[in-house]
Amino acid sequence: MDAFFQDKRVVVTGGAGFLGRFVTRKLEERGCGSIVVPRAATCDLRRREKVCHLLGDVRPHIVIHLAGVVAGIGGTRDNPGGSFYDNLMMGVHVIEGCRLHAVEKVIILGTVCSYPKVTSIPGREDELWNGYPEETNGPYGMAKKALLVQAQAYRQQYGLNSIYLLSANLYGPGDNFDPATSHVIPALIRRFSEAVVRGDREIVCWGDGTPTREFLYADDCAEAILLATERYNDPAPVNIGSGQEISIRELAEQIGGLVGFRGRIVWDTTKPNGQPRRRWDVSRAEREFGFSAQERFADGLRETVSWYRKNVLEQP
User: Fold this and answer.
1) What is the C-alpha R_g of the chain?
2) Is residue 140 part of a domain?
3) What does the alpha-carbon distance between residue 74 and residue 179 come to, in Å, rounded to a whole number?
4) CA-CA distances (angstroms) from residue 209 to 118, 133, 273?
5) Is 128 helix (H, G, I), strand (E, B) or coil?
6) Distance separating alpha carbons of residues 97 and 117, to the nearest angstrom
7) Residues 6 or more apart from 106 whose CB is under 8 A from it?
8) Which of 101, 109, 105 is CA-nearest to residue 143?
9) Calpha distance 270→191 (Å, rounded)
10) What is the domain range of residue 284?
11) For 232, which of 3, 13, 25, 228 could close a Cys bridge (C-beta 3.0–4.6 Å)?
C-alpha cells in the first residue's frame, strides 16, 4: 500500500463510470482512507450548490475530476451544445468548489480531443493552442480545454494546486458498448460481434479507414492519474497515452479477427473520418511522474472482447 493516500479523503467525480471504477479500485489497493463517489441522481455537478454541498460535507483532501459527457463521432456531432455545456459547467463548478473549500489538490482529466485538428506526430503539449479541434469534437474539446485555463488561473490567483492530464482514447473491460454513445473500439466490437451472430457477409464502417488513433488501456490511465496525484504539482498539462498508433482500418480488421468475422468490410466515405492522425508525445509523463503504459494493445483488445462476450453479448 502507498502511504500517500492512507490518511486522505478523496472525491472521485465519475467514479462509478468506466475509468472511475479502475481509479477507485487502485485507490483501495493503495489503502486510501476514504473514497467518495458522487452520483448524478443526487449530486448534479452542473449545479454549483450541489457541488458546494458535496465538498462542504466531505471536506476532501483531493478531488479527482473524471466526470463528463462523452460519446463517439456521431454522438458529439448530434449533441454539440449539450456536450459543451455539460462538460464545461461540471468542471467549472468542481474547480470553483475546490477553491472555496480549500481542497489540497485537484486532478482534472482532459482529453486529446482538445488538440488542433492537425498536430505534429507525435503531438506535444505545447501545441495545444495552435488551432481549433477537429470539427466533430470541437465543442467537447473546447469545453475541456477551458478547464485548463481555469485551473492555471486559479493556481496563479488563489494558489489552488490543480493539475491537468490529457488522456488518449481509452478502452478496456467494462467500456460503454451503447451503439449511440460508444467510442470506436467498443462500437466496432459490438457491430462485428452482432454481425457474426446474424451471419452477415459484410459490415459497413464509417470513413475510409485511414485515420490513426492512439489507445490507452483504462487500467494504465488510472495508474497514470494516481502517479500524477502523488508526484506532480506543476501547471503544465501532461499527455497520458501509450505512444503507439493504429489505423482504423487495421483496428477493424483486428477486431473482426478476434470475434470470428469472415465477411467483407465496406468503408462508407460519406461519413466523417475525424482527426487524420493521433499519436502523442508521452515523454513528459514519464519524466515528471514515472508513468509509461504497460498493457500491450493486442492483449488489452483481447481482454475487452472477452469481457463484452461474457457480460453483454451472452446475457439474456
Assistant:
1) 19
2) yes
3) 10
4) 17, 20, 8
5) coil
6) 32
7) 62, 63, 65, 94, 95, 98, 151, 160, 161, 162, 163
8) 109
9) 19
10) 3-173+214-244+278-295
11) 228
pTM check: above 0.90: yes
List the CATH number of the domain containing 33.
3.40.50.720
Residue 290 covered by a domain = yes
Question: Does some domain include residue 61?
Answer: yes
Give me the percent of the chain exceeding a pLDDT of 90. Answer: 86
- Which amino acid, one-letter code, is at 194? E
21 — pLDDT class (breaks 50, 70, 90)? very high
Split into its structural domains, the chain has a count of 1
For 113-127, the pLDDT digits (tens) are 999 988 999 999 999
Q: In angstroms, rounded to a whole number, what is the distance separating the alpha carbons of residues 19 and 149?
A: 24
> 50 lies in a domain?
yes
Going by C-beta distance under 8 Å and a sequence separation of 6 or more, which residues neighbour residue 99? 154, 158, 160
pLDDT tens for residues 167-223?
Answer: 999 999 999 998 878 889 999 999 999 999 999 999 999 899 999 999 999 999 999
**Residue whose grid cell is 476514504:** 34
| Overall residue count recorded for the chain in this entry | 316
Nearest to 140 by CA among 190, 188, 74, 206: 74
**Which residue do the cell numbers 468548489 mark?**
97
Alpha-helical runs (H) found in 172-231 = 184-198, 218-231
Q: What is the DSSP letter of 26?
A: H
| Burial (CB count within 10 angstroms: exposed 0-12, middle 13-18, buried 19+), residue 105 | buried
Catalytic center residues: 140
Instruction: Look at 1 and 210; give whichever has higher pLDDT.
Output: 210
Q: What amino acid occupies position 113? A: C
176 Cβ contact list (under 8 Å, min separation 6): 18, 182, 183, 186
- Please check whether residue 117 is in contact with residue 278, taking contact to mean a CB–CB distance below 8 angstroms: no
